[in-house]
Specification:
about 0% strand
């Protein structure tokens, strides 16, 4: 991939995820209401035996759709884990099918029509895990940039206000009104910085939780492939 395409991909990623860091109380409240427990998470395109690592955060459907879209865009040529996963999900509501039967049936159909191998499944599952790992790195870079622009800048502003107060305090009587105003500005900035930090961290936790949920599905599939498919 050329450097221009890499920069274009990075720019597109940061642009699309920039809006993920909410900036209003209404959006923050909306995010909080989307928290789901483990059973609810399992109902969203995940099988009941999927193990999601214990961590703070909530399953975010927007992140979930985004990550699935990333996987789809990075779908390898030919039949691999991606097609196998879709085939297996078609059997999730099939009556009388055990989890082992779903894996074996999905694999058997694809193997008969495309010569798909177990090794190919495992290798390509690792490919999609690597794709998600790269997305995580890009998200962390976006998070750091957002903190620098929305949190650090405000805290630097607070520091400047403190210096101004120290200078003006030499003439307290004359500058008392100015100092009171500056202290009020400090309070506002500190509150804003704390609120922005909370919103960013909350959004980041939701992304991490959703990322791990998707990764956990693939890892679970790998384990079941190793166990069920001979």
């Amino acid at each position: 991939m050329s450097n221009e395409k890499k920069e274009e991909k990075k720019s597109s990623f940061l642009s699309r995820l920039g809006s993920a860091f909410v900036t209003s109380e209404e959006q923050a409240t909306e995010t909080e209401t989307k928290e789901v427990n483990t059973e609810q998470t399992q109902a969203i395109n995940f099988t009941n035996n999927t193990s999601i690592p214990q961590m703070n955060g909530a399953f975010d459907t927007k992140f979930h759709e985004y990550l699935l879209g990333v996987i789809e865009k990075n779908n390898l040529d030919g039949v691999d884990y991606y097609e196998f996963n879709k085939s297996k999900k078609n059997l999730d509501n099939a009556p009388g099918f055990t989890e082992q039967m779903k894996y074996q049936s999905a694999f058997g159909v694809l193997q008969a029509s495309t010569n798909l191998t177990k090794e190919r499944l495992l290798e390509t599952a690792d490919h999609y895990l690597n794709v998600l790992d790269n997305e995580e790195k890009d998200f962390e870079a976006s998070k750091k940039s957002k903190i620098a622009s929305d949190v650090t800048s405000r805290m630097n502003n607070v520091s400047e206000k403190e210096k101004m107060i120290a200078s003006k305090s030499e003439d307290i009587i004359k500058l008392q009104t100015d100092i009171a105003q500056l202290r009020n500005e400090m309070s506002v900035l500190q509150n804003e910085a704390q609120n922005e930090q909370f919103k960013i961290e909350s959004t980041a936790k939701n992304f991490k939780y959703t990322l791990e949920a998707v990764k956990a599905q693939i890892i679970s599939d790998k384990t079941n492939i190793q166990t069920f498919i001979q």
